[in-house]
Specification:
Elements lengths: L4 E4 L9 H13 L6 E5 L17 H12 L1 E5 L9 H7 L2 E3 L3 E5 L2 E5 L10 H10 L2 H8 L3 H21 L2 H4 L3 H10 L4 E4 L6 E7 L2 E7 L7 E6 L4 E6 L4
Helix pairs in contact: 1-2
């Protein structure tokens, strides 16, 4: 039987949530060695203020390195950890993928991305996204002392939390037209993403035939995993205990 390909996203690893880190560590040790590949589709970390702000001895980097020795490990940037760079890739053993990317998933051309670029109705977030992906902005931010970067990241998280409580659900979800346009652009019938924290499988017809959008959820209450074999692609939950 073929080894599964696994997709996860939105772990938001942070020292304030040790149970998520513990669950992810167990997942890496138990699931990664059995998988053909593991894709982490953004927001692995709650915040990443630069590769220079982490030690090579960071426990989660060690766990990622061990997983990468057992399987192919791919990581995408999310809207919280868009500053993951070459040193992170080196320390973790992961391959950083551009967003979006097209992969061959058991013979199916499949489009993968974090997902926030599809939330086009959220104009404020799209403005923020454009700003933080600008190389000059990133260079300026990374030139600040680590303590100042930490403070700026905390302020951004606080703003995001309060703002999300005020927004309508529809604004924070993907825009159907954006999904259709992106899939047509890449001639893909299958799309996998995270970001919205709404695990689901949305089936529809594309210009190239039947297709679907697979949304992997977050890891706050349990781990959301998309397990893909040649026979079936299925969303699963990974409990925090056990």
């Amino acid at each position: 039987m073929s080894q599964p390909v696994l997709f996860i996203a939105d772990l938001h690893l942070d020292s304030s949530r040790p149970e998520i880190t513990a669950t992810f560590t167990r997942f890496l040790r138990q699931e990664a060695p059995q998988a053909a590949a593991l894709y982490i589709l953004g927001d692995l970390f709650e915040a990443w203020i630069g590769d220079d702000a982490v030690s090579a001895e960071e426990p989660i980097l060690k766990e990622l390195r061990q997983a990468a020795a057992a399987t192919s490990l791919y990581v995408m940037h999310g809207n919280r950890d868009f500053l993951l760079g070459a040193r992170f890739a080196e320390l973790s053993g992961a391959t950083l993928l551009p967003e979006p990317s097209c992969i061959d998933l058991h013979g199916e051309r499949t489009l993968i991305l974090h997902g926030d670029s599809l939330c086009t109705a959220d104009h404020e977030h799209q403005t923020f996204r454009t700003m933080v992906h600008d190389p000059q902005w990133q260079q300026h931010f990374l030139s600040q002392p680590i303590a100042q970067r930490l403070e700026m990241a905390q302020q951004a998280r606080n703003r995001s939390r309060s703002r999300n409580q005020e927004l309508h659900e529809e604004i924070m979800d993907v825009t159907p037209e954006a999904v259709t346009a992106l899939m047509a652009e890449h001639e893909a019938r299958w799309l996998i993403h995270g970001h919205t924290h709404r695990p689901a499988v949305h089936r529809f017809t594309t210009a190239h035939g039947p297709g679907a959008r697979f949304v992997v959820g977050d890891w706050f209450k349990q781990g959301s995993v998309l397990r893909c074999t040649p026979q079936r692609w299925e969303l699963e939950e990974w409990a925090h205990h056990g």
